[in-house]
Amino acid sequence: MKTIITGASGFVGQNLSQYLKNEDCDIKAVSLRSDWTLDNNADAVIHLAGKAHDVENSSAEEDYFKINTDLTKKVFDEFLNSDIKDFIYFSSVKAVADCVEDILDENRFAEPKTPYGKSKRFAEEYLLAKKIPDTKRLFIIRPCMIHGPGNKGNLNLLYKIVKMGIPWPLGAFDNKRSFLNIDNLNFLILQILKNKKIESGIYNFADDDFLSTNELIKIIDEVLGKKTKQLNVYPDIINIFSKVGDKVKLPLNSERLKKLTENYKVSNNKIKLALNIRQLPVSTREGLIKTIKSFQHK
């Protein structure tokens, strides 16, 4: 199975490419930074290339739309004019909502608030507005927070805090959120490529269980053999401190605080129903332990 991957040099792209190669897929990485074309003999396109959400809020808004929206339109138009059968677009749960009080499913009305979320949603709308031939399939994938060995981000920041023995100041925040282990992401993409009975559509990608950040701290403690003291500092004080971090470069700013303390539960029921499975190969806890252990070898 010949599969084109854009954005193959990124964290997800590298992992997915290697995984699919191990499953006897012929992978062709396409860079969209120079002249490019899609191999008409390919079976599928996985469009990963895009501009990620900048937690420092230092990116120009137009950059998100230029890369996440306009470039996606060009790749999709090329796909429609080819003989390639499947197009898999990696969008984001943030194309739908920045905050989730209950559980996010694929039927939620999209109200993105950030330039990143809006740029992803505009790309989705363009793809969904196009007429897809009966011989082709379109998948819009909305992953939540992706992690795995080699990944840098908020999990790595948490790991460093716990490793240094710093008391955890956000114990008063009681949240539940979804994570997505790279092994589960790879598994789901392979199933979509192999199973031609899966219908076109929008699919959330998330692990099976929800975890709080406080529970995550305990998992890191378990890996490190530590016991972090959790402080119940008043949320109002933490919010003020995070706003200072917006103006002065500090490890904690408003965006990071939101990611660490918000409720963001994502349903993966639709993709599991399509695959006729009850659970994903890697549990939420197992996946997080694997990722956290990888930080020890850096």
Number of strands: 10
Radius of gyration: 20 Å
Just give the CATH class of the domain at 2-152 and 177-209 and 265-281: Alpha Beta
How large is the count of helical segments? 10
**For this structure, what is the CATH homologous superfamily of the domain at 2-152 and 177-209 and 265-281?**
NAD(P)-binding Rossmann-like Domain
Q: How large a portion of the residues is in β-strands, by DSSP E?
A: 5-15%
* Poorly predicted tracts of residues: none
Helix-strand topology string: EHEEHEEHEEHEHEHHHEHH
Q: Assign an overall shape.
A: globular
Helix percentage range:
40-55%
Strand order of the largest sheet: 2-1-3-4-6-9
From the 3D structure, determine the CATH topology of the domain at 2-152 and 177-209 and 265-281.
Answer: Rossmann fold
CATH structural architecture of the domain at 2-152 and 177-209 and 265-281: 3-Layer(aba) Sandwich
Provide the fold topology.
Layout: E1 2-6, H1 11-22, E2 26-30, E3 44-47, H2 61-80, E4 86-90, E5 103-104, H3 115-129, E6 137-143, E7 145-147, H4 154-163, E8 179-181, H5 182-194, E9 201-205, H6 213-224, H7 235-247, H8 254-261, E10 265-266, H9 269-275, H10 284-295
Parallel strand pairs: 1-2, 1-3, 3-4, 4-6, 5-10, 6-9, 7-8
Helix pairs in contact: 1-5, 2-3, 4-6, 6-10, 7-8
